[in-house]
C-alpha cells in the first residue's frame, strides 16, 4: 500500500513537472486575475479565453503557439483558462470558446481573423501599423501587393480636407484593411492618377478600383467596404464572418457539382456586378453545406438561390419550382432591392391542443398568442439540442403553474427557434438559446430577461415588469400616495 502511494506521488510529481516544463517552453503567456492587466494594458496584445475540453481550442493551440513565437518580440499573445478563472471570463463577457480579443492599452475589441498562425500573425502585424502608413514613391508597389486588399491614397499634402477624410476612414477600418498614403509626384505618375486620389488594390476580380465620389469619410468607408468584397466568392467557415460583418444582404447560390457551378454560375455572376453595393453574392458548396439550406427555408434540391438579410434574420428563397436562370433571378433580386418581396415564414403546424401550463407558439400563431394585448407573455425561444434549454425546461413548466397564481392574464410560452421564424416586423431577433422576452400587455412593449434562471427570479421579474404582475398597480398606488402627500403639504396663499 505504501509503495503504491509512493508510486502515485511520483507519477503526480512527474506529471506536474511535465506541465511546468511545457508552460516554460511556451511563448503563450498564461494569465490569471492578478496578471491579466499586465498584458491587457500593453500597447497591443491578443488574449484567448478557452476551456481545456474545447475541441476548437485544442485545434487552435498549435497555431496560436506558432504565432506567439513569431510575434513574441513585439506583440504578446496570452490565454486565460475559463474553467479556472471564471470571474475574469465573466467580466469580459466570454460566452463561447475560444473567444479571442485584441487589447490596446486595456481597451478590448473582437479578433476578426482566422484561427491559423499565418492569419493571426498578419492580423496583429496589421494592427501594429499606424492607421495610415507613410509611403515613398518606390514603396507604393510593394505596399500595394502586401495583402489581399490594400488601400493607397495619393495627396499633394497631408493638411488637406481630402487627406483628413481618408485618415478618418482608415481609423475606422484599420482592423480590417491596410491603408497607406503618398505625397510624391513620382508615385502619382507611376499609378496614372491625379491627386487627390484613392486606389484600392486587390488580388482578385478587377485587380484594383479607383474612388470616384466626394472625399468624405462615409463615402470612402463605403467604397472600401463595397469593392473589397469579391464579386462572387465561395463562402465557407474561413470567410463567413467577414460577410456577416459586412452587413449587406447575402445571396447564396447552392451548387452541388463543378459542372453545376460552371453552367448556373455563368447565368448568375453578372448579377453580382449589377447589384454590387446592395447585395453580396456567394457560391455555397451544397455537397458540404447542404444542411444550411434548411436554415434558409430551402429544400435540399440543387441548384437553389436565396437571399438572407442576416441583421433581421429574414429569408427570401427563390421559387424552387423554377429554373435558376439569369432573367428570373435578376427580376427576383430587383424586387428584393425595391422592397417588393415578402420574406418566407418558417413554421411548424399549429398544435391541435394547446391547453398546457406552457403555451406552445409556432410561426403561424405568434401574433395570436404573443401579441395578445390583453395578456403579458413571457416567452422562451429554445433549441431542442441546447443543453441550457434542457436544464431550464422543468423550471419553465413549474413557472407556467406558478404564474397563474399571479394573474390569469400572464402567459408562459415557448417557441422552437430552429423550426419557426419570428414575424418580419418583430422588434427583436433571436441570436442564441435560450432567449427570454416579456411582451407586455397593452402596447406589446418588449422587455429582455437577463436574470438567473430560477423560479424565484422569474416570479420576481414578472411582479416587477408585467402589467398584470402587481408592479403596475403598486406603482400607481405609490404615485397616488405621493400626490396626496404633496397636496396635504401645500399651503394656499
From TrEMBL:
In terms of InterPro entries, this protein maps to:
PDI_thioredoxin-like_dom (IPR005788), Prot_disulphide_isomerase (IPR005792), Thioredoxin-like_sf (IPR036249), Thioredoxin_CS (IPR017937), Thioredoxin_domain (IPR013766)
Where it sits in the cell: the answer is: Endoplasmic reticulum lumen
Listed GO biological process terms: protein folding; response to endoplasmic reticulum stress
Q: Spell out the Basic and acidic residues composition-biased ranges.
A: 471-493
Superkingdom per UniProt: Eukaryota
Q: Which Gene3D superfamilies match?
A: Glutaredoxin
Q: What is its EC number?
A: 5.3.4.1
Annotated region described as Disordered, given as residue ranges? 469-493
Q: Where is the Thioredoxin domain?
A: 7-129, 336-467
Q: Which Pfam families match?
A: Thioredoxin, Thioredoxin_6
- Quickly give the catalysed reaction: Catalyzes the rearrangement of -S-S- bonds in proteins
Keywords in alphabetical order, please: Disulfide bond, Endoplasmic reticulum, Isomerase, Redox-active center, Repeat, Signal
Q: What PROSITE patterns does this protein map onto?
A: THIOREDOXIN_1 (PS00194), THIOREDOXIN_2 (PS51352)
Which residues are the signal sequence here? 1-20
Name which cysteines form disulfide bonds. Answer: 54-57, 386-389
> What are this entry's molecular-function GO terms?
protein disulfide isomerase activity
Recorded family membership:
Belongs to the protein disulfide isomerase family.
Q: What is this protein called?
A: Protein disulfide-isomerase
Q: Which organism is this entry from?
A: Spizellomyces punctatus (strain DAOM BR117)
